[in-house]
């Protein structure tokens, strides 16, 4: 039987610790055997899941990895769900991906039951799945589809990014090579596990390398800093917002603690930032506080990681370095010309084995996202003194907040369903902690009153907390161009 490479490798790491979760160390051998049981229960006598979509909502843990591998080993497509999504957001994913069933820890089934019942979807506990006897598992080829991650973009509702096993393997292997991952590495995992940063860069690379992945339910500085001070980690990966929050924690600590935490960071062999622009000031402040020079890299759900500062060599604040191994990049100007010179900005386009296969059920959107086989990222960059620097995005309707990509159009569509809202325009405005925060300019229905607390209260049931407007302006009219279309840059200026 041919086995997926990540699982075959895990067999070789047998008694080493794969994951620390729930206060316990779990070996690679236990991960492999638990995933085999889950695969056998998912198959329930059939030979192969045949790319049926299996959704799961599980915090970072042995069970997250065992379910992901169990689905893969049974020939299914893994659809990880956000822990913090509101019900309408979950419903979109479950129905769009046409999932077969939902898996969750026993203790969390209650929260999902009303939605599962409404959608007539089976809801199963991990505990019940990870039992019984092993069974023969299918041979799953690398070209098979492995995972769907939902990502916001220039369409209102998030789209499903489909990656094959070969894509995921390429996304992992390029980072193993470029960043020198080894089996003696140890990394904390506190990022959400429905996005590539947590799934591929931390969990995927860690388990591929035979390293130890230390699971946290979410980012919480206090317990994390204690483990850092105990020199538990050699590698660390986070979004810029987390570095900003850690800087605040270090500055608020008394001197002995600050020294302990800083020493724990200083002894790591690699600290990486990505998913959003790392301000050069934060890069420098981190070095001042900890002696560590952050390695900034650039990536995207559709492609994995593409550009990276070097492991050895200059890590330039404000820049994202050079293409990773096996990733080919070009910059393309407004009229489609390929840019050959430094200092001339263009759109980043990407080719390589890590590039996703398709947007789920959206052949036309997929087609429009490629030109001559190159994936159009929608991000602008320029090469300066040999290194790429990200300049921003082509679309004003994409917002990055706390490392999450948000669609202004999706938020507007939701806000328009509020009874007091007649028209609205959503933009991202700069913020020191979050990179950008969501701001909404609203024209109310005549006579209707609206304030931010009331709008927030209403919106909480409908969207994840990182999508909530943090600023609200009630206006008589919105800035428009000659055609009557709302001009977003002018809306942004209204927020000062
Ligand atoms: C939360 N809050 C926000 C906010 N998010 N306020 C403004 N803007 C936001 N974006 C508020 C909450 O409402 C709450 O307020 C308070 O902050 C704490 O909320 P929380 O959810 O507990 O926040 P916290 O846990 O501190 O979350 C911050 C974070 C999280 C940075 C840990 O946002 C995160 O995990 N981001 C990573 C996302 C990620 O992995 N992206 C990668 C995508 S892949 P109150 O008033 O209620 O207390 C990708 C490709 C690549 O991008 O290149 O990697
Ligand atoms: P996502 O769709 O959530 O995978 O987010 C991908 C987007 O994050 C990219 O298209 C960029 O806009 C942004 N991004 C990722 N890394 C960086 C970085 N280092 N600097 C600036 N933007 C980044």
Task: Give the termini separation.
Answer: 62 Å
Portion of residues within helices: 25-40%
Categorize the overall geometry. globular
Residue stretches low in confidence (pLDDT < 50, at least 5 long) are none
Helix/sheet category? alpha/beta
Order of neighbouring strands in the sheet with most strands: 11-12-13-14-15
Strand segment tally: 26
Cα gyration radius (Å): 23 Å
Care to describe what's here?
This protein has 496 residues and is α/β, with parallel strands linked by helices. It contains 16 helices and 26 strands. It has a 5-stranded mixed beta sheet with strand order 11-12-13-14-15. Strands 16, 17, 19, 20 and 21 form a 5-stranded antiparallel beta sheet that branches. A hairpin with a 2-residue loop joins strand 22 (398-401) and strand 23 (404-407). The structure holds malonyl-coenzyme A and adenosine monophosphate. Residues 151, 195-196, 274-277, 296, 298-301, 320, 377, 379, 390, 393, 400, 405 line the site of adenosine monophosphate.
């Amino acid at each position: 039987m041919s086995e997926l490479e990540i699982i075959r490798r895990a067999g070789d790491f047998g008694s080493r610790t794969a994951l620390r979760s729930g206060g316990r160390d779990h070996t690679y051998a236990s991960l492999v055997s638990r995933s085999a049981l889950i695969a056998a229960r998912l198959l329930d006598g059939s030979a192969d899941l045949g790319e049926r979509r299996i959704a799961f909502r599980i915090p970072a843990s042995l069970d997250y990895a065992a379910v992901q591998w169990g689905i893969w080993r049974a020939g299914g497509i893994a659809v990880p769900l956000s822990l913090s999504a509101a019900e309408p957001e979950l419903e979109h994913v479950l129905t769009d991906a046409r999932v077969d069933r939902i898996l969750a820890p026993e203790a969390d089934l209650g929260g999902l039951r009303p939605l599962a019942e409404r959608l007539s979807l089976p809801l199963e506990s991990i505990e019940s799945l990870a039992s019984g006897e092993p069974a023969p598992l299918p041979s799953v080829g690398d070209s098979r589809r492995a995972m769907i991650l939902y990502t916001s973009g220039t369409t209102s509702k998030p789209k499903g990014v489909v990656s094959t096993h070969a894509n995921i393997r390429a996304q992992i292997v390029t980072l193993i090579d470029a960043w020198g991952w080894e089996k003696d590495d140890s990394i904390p995992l506190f990022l959400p596990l429905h996005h590539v940063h947590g799934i591929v860069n931390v969990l995927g690379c860690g388990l591929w390398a035979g390293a130890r992945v230390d699971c946290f339910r979410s980012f919480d500085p206090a317990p994390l800093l204690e483990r850092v001070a105990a020199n538990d980690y050699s590698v660390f990966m986070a979004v810029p917002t987390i570095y900003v929050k850690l800087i605040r924690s270090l500055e608020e600590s008394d001197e002995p603690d600050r020294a302990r935490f800083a020493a724990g960071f200083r002894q790591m062999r690699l600290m990486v930032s990505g998913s959003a622009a790392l301000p050069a000031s934060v890069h420098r402040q981190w070095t001042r506080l900890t002696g560590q020079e952050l390695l900034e890299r650039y990536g995207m759900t559709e492609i994995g990681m593409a550009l990276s500062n070097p492991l050895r060599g200059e890590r330039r604040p404000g820049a994202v370095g050079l293409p990773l191994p096996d990733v080919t990049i070009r910059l393309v100007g407004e009229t489609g010309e390929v840019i050959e010179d430094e200092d001339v900005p263009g759109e980043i386009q990407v080719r390589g084995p890590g590039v996703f296969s398709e947007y789920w059920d959206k052949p036309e959107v997929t087609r429009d996202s490629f030109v001559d086989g190159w994936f159009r990222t929608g991000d602008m960059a320029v090469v300066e003194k040999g290194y790429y620097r990200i300049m921003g995005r082509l679309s004003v309707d994409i917002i990055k907040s706390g490392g999450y990509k948000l669609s202004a159009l999706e938020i507007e569509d939701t806000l328009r369903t509020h009874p007091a809202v007649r028209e609205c325009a959503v933009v991202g405005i700069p913020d020191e902690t979050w990179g950008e925060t969501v701001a909404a300019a609203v024209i109310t229905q005549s006579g209707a009153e609206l304030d931010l607390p009331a709008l927030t209260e209403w919106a909480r049931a409908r969207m994840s907390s990182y999508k909530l407007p943090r600023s609200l302006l009630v206006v008589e009219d919105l800035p428009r161009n000659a055609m009557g279309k709302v001009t977003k840059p002018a809306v942004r200026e209204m927020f000062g």
